[in-house]
Structures are given as structure tokens and as C-alpha cells.
Amino acid sequence: MLKNLFNKKIKIQKETIFSPLDGEVLPLENVPDPVFSQKMMGEGVAIIPKSGKVVSPVNGKIISIFPTKHAIGIRSEKGLELLIHIGLETVDLNGEPFELLAKEHKIVKIGEPLLNVDLQLLENCNKEIITPLIITNKEIIKEIEYPNYGEIHFGEVILTCKI
């Protein structure tokens, strides 16, 4: 009986995360906020967006939308939890530059629009537009493959994880 217990193979799954934005990918350490750059919230990357369209990076379910609409949490079908945090200190704007296109608890597909953000308004309000993409349940990850940093477009692979 114990032999069967110890001979069970652990199935490692691969989770591919696609870019939720068009823009430039940077290491998380480049975010000018220690909560993100010191990875207090989790592992990930940052994106400097070129447009205000934000799409789902995975097939999954929206598990949280902050009341100020500046951040969205998604749980992938394989259990990976992601946070898309649009800009820095954007919570101060009380949702003004954000237009939600999806609701909490909605099942979403890769590339499905989640929200639009007025990047010019963020910049006019002296807010950083850099957008962290964070894996908040990093304890389930065995390995992360980071991208080649630089230009990225919707639908391109931004991270690959083994879970």
C-alpha cells in the first residue's frame, strides 16, 4: 500500500500566460514601487502600455475587481491567480479613467476585453502607467520562464509557468 503512495507521479502542468496589453515588457524590479519591485505581492513582469485596451491573459474566471477599477484578479483554469494592476497609485483616481468591460465572476477567454483605460488621463494626473502583472499564488509554481524583455503585443506569450 505504501509503495503505491510513493510511486505516484506528480503531474506537472504548464500554464501559458499571454500579454494583456500592447507595450513594452520590463522586469518587475523596474517598477518604481517597492510593493511590486520587491515582489511582496508575487512574481511577474511589468508592462508599459501603448494603448488603453486590457484583455484577459488566460482562460479563467474574474475573481476580483477593485471598486476603483484599477486592478483585476483572474484565476486561470489551472488555478494560477493573476493580478493586473493598471498604473501606480491609480486607486487615488476613484475609477475615473477606467471603463469596465467585464464583471466579477465572469468566465473569460484569452484575449477577451476586460477594460479600457484612458492612459492620457493617467499621465495628466501624474500617475505612472506601468502595469504590473503579478502571480499572487506563487507557492503553487515550480518554475517560471520569463520573456525576452522588450516590445510585446496582445496574444503573445509573456510568461510560462510549471505548476
From TrEMBL:
Domain of life the protein comes from: Bacteria
The UniProt record lists the keyword Kinase: yes
GO biological process terms on file: phosphoenolpyruvate-dependent sugar phosphotransferase system
Pfam families: PTS_EIIA_1 (PF00358)
Localization annotation: Cytoplasm
InterPro entries linked: Dup_hybrid_motif, PTS_EIIA_1_perm, PTS_EIIA_component
Location of the PTS EIIA type-1 domain: 33-137
GO CC entries: cytoplasm
Keywords linked to the UniProt accession: Kinase, Phosphotransferase system, Sugar transport, Transferase, Transport
PROSITE patterns tied to this protein: PTS_EIIA_TYPE_1, PTS_EIIA_TYPE_1_HIS
GO molecular function, one term: kinase activity
Entry-linked NCBIfam families: PTBA
Record's protein name: PTS system IIA component, Glc family (TC 4.A.1)
